[in-house]
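Cross-posting from the modeling subforum.

Setting up a comparison between two proteins and wanted a second pair of eyes on the formatting. Protein 1 (sequence, then structure tokens):
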Amino acid sequence: MDRAKDTRIKYAGLAGGMTGCITRCICQPLDVLKIRLQLQVEPISTHSQISKYRSITQTVACIYKEEGLFALWKGHNPAQVLSLVYGVAQFSFYERFNVVLRDTAIFEGHDRARNFTCGAFSGSFAALIIMPLDVIRTRLVSQDPGKGYRNTFQAVNLIYRIEGIRGLYRGLGPAILQIAPLTGGQFMFYNLFGTAIKRFEHLPENAVLPPTELFLCGGFAGLCTKLLVYPLDLVKKRLQIQGFANNRQTYGQHFVANHMLQCLYEVGRYEGVRGLYKGLSPSLLKAGFTSAFYFAIYDQLLTMFNKGFK
């Protein structure tokens, strides 16, 4: 292994963890909006008279009026830990998988397939680790003011005591099905767009693109992949609030489903195909900005660490 690859792997976990924390702090309000809209059974329409949330701007105004500005950062603590752990696991394992598979005969001359495979494996592994934090984050964001859990530690204790270990892993099925193509696609599209820019600008293959171009590559990579797997993200969120109805009395009708296939069927039957894409607008904004910040900050931090720790 050459020195450049070795230093990239060495600092991948540190850079990935810092990237996750910075990005989460910036994008958390979009995550709150996405989750609130995903969990609403009633139509998301400005013409609806029965819906609590009817558009992005109206949802922001409603949350601010009823719960205050900091409600847009609800669930931030477990989400921040989630991002830190996920960032460390995802990027460190991605770099290691990439080194191993780069010398595998089946992937010779197939860089995009290798990037997709590495991203899928690293994302799935990271998702398995952080799943309990994702469940807690979803419930903290979606609970009534003054009800539910006071903090992350109480949430872990109550969920485990009342629902068992299964409660901490609600929605794991769609999460894994979603994260493999999502993460794999992000790395594949990111490297694809980056390679295209380098060829267009006649840059060497190992050149580091400027932050603006890294930001654009990451943003487009996030948008492309999110569109493909979005219904699975909605299903995951719906499953994560099962058994939590008593703490969600002010958000309208409570959705009930026992497993992923039933959830998909019930949403499609009663809310239509559009129901599977509720919260898509803030989700796409979040996906674009998150991926853009992730890759731009990650590559810049790696460059800084490699220069600073030589």
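Protein 2 (same layout):
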Amino acid sequence: MNKTELIKQMATISGLTQAQAGDALEALCTVVINELHAGGEVSVTGFGAFSAPQRAERQGRNPKTGEAVTIAAHRVVKFKAGKGLRDAVA
């Protein structure tokens, strides 16, 4: 399912217009991005939690040359599915 199909499904289920559903999806994405950028976590009970923990600097290897390279510290986005989502999919 792509973004357009998701918006259509959201509009059908919620009774919103596709424009309103698109705005709602954009607002959700903006809120999640802003909160993760600020170092927070977004948790939706029954669905899951988004977080962005810091990953430490580490040594890696260039697979082409085998040369050791330093991978800089950075933040990574993680999603942990909630119990309701896991049960619905299983």
